[in-house]
Amino acid sequence: MLTLLIELPIIVQTILVLIAGSVSGSFLNVVIYRLPIMLNNDWRLQCQSFLDLPQDEKPRFNLLLPASTCPSCKAPIKWWHNIPLVGFFLLKGKCASCSTAISIRYPLVEAFHALVWVLVYWLYGPTPIALGLMLFSSALLVLFFIDAEHKLLPDDITLPLLWAGLLFNLFTQHTSIEQAIWGAVWGYLVLWILFWIFKLLTGKEGFGYGDFKLLAALGAWGGALCLPWLLLISACTGLLIALFLRLTGRIKAGDQFPFGPALVIAGWIMIVLQPWLPVWMSI
Questions:
Q1: What is the C-alpha to C-alpha distance for residues 202 and 196, in angstroms, rounded to an integer?
Q2: Which of 21, 205, 210, 216 has the most CB atoms around it within 10 Å of its CB?
Q3: Read out DSSP for 231-281?
Q4: Which residues of 66-82 are buried (b: 16+ CB within 10 A; e: fewer)?
Q5: How does the average pLDDT of the chain come out, rounded?
Q6: Which residues pair with 168 in a beta bridge?
Q7: pLDDT band at 187 (very low <50, low <70, confident <90, very high)
Q8: Are residues 120 and 230 located together in one domain of the fold?
C-alpha cells in the first residue's frame, strides 16, 4: 500500500490524504457529539443498578446507531448531506427540514482534521510514523472539543491513547521505549503532585483526573524529556485561553475552565513537530 502511494505524484498523494482526512473528520464529529451522551447514559444505568432502581429502557445509542438526525427536529439526514464539507455548503449551514442553524464546528473539524493529516504526511512521508501521528492527532482533536464543551477527558480515549503511545514507540522508535515509559509515569505524577499541593494549600481542585491521564498519554508518545517544555507551553496556552474566555464573558474570576485543550495544543506541538523544533527546545 505504501509502495503504491509513493509511486503517485505528490499532488495526488496530497489529495488522497485530504479526502481521507475530511472523511475521517466527519466520523470524529460523530464521536465528539455521541461519546459524552453514551458515557452519560452508561453512568445513569450504573447508578440505577447500584441503587436497585428500575432501569430506563432507551433505544440503542452508540457511534453507529441510530442513523444521523437533526439534533433539533430529529429529521433523518440524507446521505449526500453527510458528505464532508460539501454537505454543509449544500445545506447553506441550515437543517433541510427545520432550517435550524448547523454548528460551524462540523465543517471546521472536517477541514482542520484534513489539513492536519496533510501536514503530518508532508513532514513524515508515507511511513508508519506518519500513520501513527495522524491517528494521534485525530485522538487529540476529539479530546480538545469534548473537554472544551463538557469539561471531560474520557478514559475511553486517554487510556487507549497511552497504550498506543507505548506501542508506537516500541515499533517505530520515534522516541526510545524507555523514554516513553518514563514519560507516561512522570506525565501522570507531575500533575497528580501539583493537584494535591494546590488542594492542600487552597482547598480547591486545580486539575481533573482526566488531565493526569492525558499528560501520561502525551508522555508515552513524546517521552519524558518533552514534558518540561510541554508543561510550559500548555501553561502559557492555558493562560491565553483563560484570558480569552474572561474577555468574552464566558468565565468570571475564580471560575474553572478545562485545561485539556491547552495540553492538547502543547502535546501536538512537542510530539508531532519534534524534529523541526529549535535546537534550544531539543528533546
A1: 10
A2: 21
A3: HHHHHHHHHHHHHHHHHTTSS-TT----SHHHHHHHHHHHHHSGGGS-GGG
A4: eebebeeeeeebeeebb
A5: 90
A6: none
A7: very high
A8: no
∠ CA 118-261-208, nearest 5°, is 140
State yes or no: pLDDT of 158 exceeds 80.
yes
- Given a cut of 70, whether residue 256 has pLDDT beyond it is yes
**For residue 282, is pLDDT > 80?**
no
pLDDT reported for residue 225? 92
Range of the domain at 18: 1-126
Using one digit for the tens of pLDDT, what is the confidence trace for 125-146? 999 999 999 999 999 999 999 9
The total number of structural domains in the chain stands at 2
Q: What are the start-end ranges of the H helices in the chain?
A: 2-7, 10-50, 86-90, 105-124, 128-150, 155-172, 177-202, 209-222, 227-247, 260-272
State the angle between helix axes of 155-172 and 128-150 in degrees (0 to 180), rounded to the nearest 10: 160
Residues 101 and 150 in one domain: no
Which uninterrupted H or E stretch holds 151? none
The letter for the amino acid at 65 is L
- What does the alpha-carbon distance between residue 26 and residue 28 come to, in Å, rounded to a whole number? 5
pLDDT given for residue 30 in this prediction: 95
Listed residues 126, 152, 176: the one ending a domain: 126
pLDDT at 3: 61
In a shared domain, residues 122 and 133: no
pLDDT tier, 283 (very low <50, low <70, confident <90, very high otherwise): low
- The SS3 call for residue 143 is helix
- Identify whether residues 145 and 277 lie together within a single domain: yes
